[in-house]
């Protein structure tokens, strides 16, 4: 199996099914965890030296930090309802407690930070929806923690790609820090498939092909993108959702398309 692909495991006693750390990924910035919590189950963590974005993927929960508390967060039972999620931003040197009020799935997105911004709720109406691409390149993007909210390192968004369509396409990359031209960002793709027995395909490759891997992703799979281009294809009949988490030296998303496929944009 590719070192870039993490398949889910059965929930442990905390409900954890996926865990990516900078150490396990071999990079510097992005950490990522997914929990499946049963109604009444609680999850508690110190944010330590990280800023954290808690995304209620499905279900409902009460969430509290050291100074803030919110109840009955969450609206959607399916990722494919095309409703934005409720999320909570937690600064470093804080503590969060999540109590599931229904069965739920929670994504915990992390990146190193110093504490410039306070804990706050990100409501569905705070998220920015947009449709990108045309024809079989069309997908629906929801910016959760992007240009709609300030943070130190984290960039978080969701994408729904209809069956038969491509996403992150034409292939693009963001692995060099060149002012006004490209930013260096590590990236996580957390995949969900509808119906859940389906699959999708993701390729990660560099210009010199020193990295060139094509992976079959299934429900709850995670793909790590340390560098290179990273297009995704959803087969006919299976809609694809993914949660993107990015972080790097600069919190700015500036990318370059693969020059061999730039003609697709121009036409």
UniProtKB/TrEMBL annotation:
<dbReference type="InterPro" id="IPR011051">
    <property type="entry name" value="RmlC_Cupin_sf"/>
</dbReference>
<dbReference type="InterPro" id="IPR024203">
    <property type="entry name" value="Deoxy-glucuronate_isom_IolB"/>
</dbReference>
<protein>
    <submittedName>
        <fullName>5-deoxy-glucuronate isomerase</fullName>
    </submittedName>
</protein>
<dbReference type="Pfam" id="PF04962">
    <property type="entry name" value="KduI"/>
</dbReference>
<dbReference type="InterPro" id="IPR014710">
    <property type="entry name" value="RmlC-like_jellyroll"/>
</dbReference>
<keyword id="KW-0413">Isomerase</keyword>
<dbReference type="GO" id="GO:0008880">
    <property type="term" value="F:glucuronate isomerase activity"/>
</dbReference>
<dbReference type="InterPro" id="IPR021120">
    <property type="entry name" value="KduI/IolB_isomerase"/>
</dbReference>
<dbReference type="GO" id="GO:0019310">
    <property type="term" value="P:inositol catabolic process"/>
</dbReference>
């Amino acid at each position: 199996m590719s070192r870039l692909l993490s398949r889910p495991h059965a929930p442990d006693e905390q409900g954890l099914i996926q865990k990516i750390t900078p150490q396990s990924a071999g990079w510097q910035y992005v950490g990522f965890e997914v929990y499946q919590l049963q109604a009444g189950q609680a999850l508690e963590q110190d944010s330590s030296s990280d800023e954290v974005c808690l995304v209620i993927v499905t279900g409902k929960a009460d969430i509290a930090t050291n100074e803030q508390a919110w109840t009955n967060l969450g609206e959607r039972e399916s990722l494919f309802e095309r409703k934005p999620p409720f999320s909570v931003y937690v600064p470093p040197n804080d503590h969060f407690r999540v109590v599931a009020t229904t069965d739920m799935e929670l994504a915990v997105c992390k990146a190193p930070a110093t504490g410039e911004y306070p804990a706050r709720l990100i409501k569905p109406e705070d998220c920015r929806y947009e449709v990108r691409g045309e024809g079989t390149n069309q997908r629906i993007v929801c910016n959760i923690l992007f240009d709609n909210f300030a943070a130190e390192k984290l960039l978080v968004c969701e994408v729904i790609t209809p069956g038969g369509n491509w996403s992150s396409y034409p292939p693009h990359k963001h692995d060099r820090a060149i002012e006004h031209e490209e930013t260096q960002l590590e990236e996580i793709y957390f995949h969900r498939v509808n119906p859940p027995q389906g699959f999708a395909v993701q390729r990660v490759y560099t210009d010199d092909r020193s990295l060139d891997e094509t992976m079959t992703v299934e429900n709850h799979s995670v793909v790590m993108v340390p560098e290179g281009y990273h297009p995704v294809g959803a087969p006919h009949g299976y809609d694809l959702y993914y949660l993107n988490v990015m972080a790097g030296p600069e919190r700015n998303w500036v990318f370059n398309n693969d020059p061999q496929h730039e003609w697709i944009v121009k036409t």
